[in-house]
Amino acid sequence: MEIEISTPALLFPAVSLLLLAYTNRFLTTGQLIRLLSTQAKQTHNKELTKQIDNLKQRLELTKWMQFFGVMSMLLCTISMFGLFLEFFEIGKKVFGLSLITMCVSLMISLWEVYISSNALNMELKDLHEKCNDVKA
User: Is residue 69 classed as helix, strand or coil in its secondary structure?
Assistant: First the structure.
């Protein structure tokens, strides 16, 4: 199969948007950590421990999502350079590697979304219990 130098370039807009989304997730997680830190200093609530553990895990996953996303972009660029120099076999293999690293990044992202939704479900459970206590 022959690929042109423009083929890896098709991945650039997708990777750029994903990295932007990952950065937004990172910033949001950072804001939540700062908020929980303030709450923990004011009250000694053991329920915060679950949320802190969840945020630690999400932060670690976001770091790896960004790592593999950036690696995908870097490999894509190297692939284009290889194709530019007419090293077609190397360019194709490196492009394949960039697609694999993008898939890894997306799978980690899916995992992080799953963990995030679990955190929200914990919050909803607490909220539901508090509402039921008020009604009783």
Answer: helix
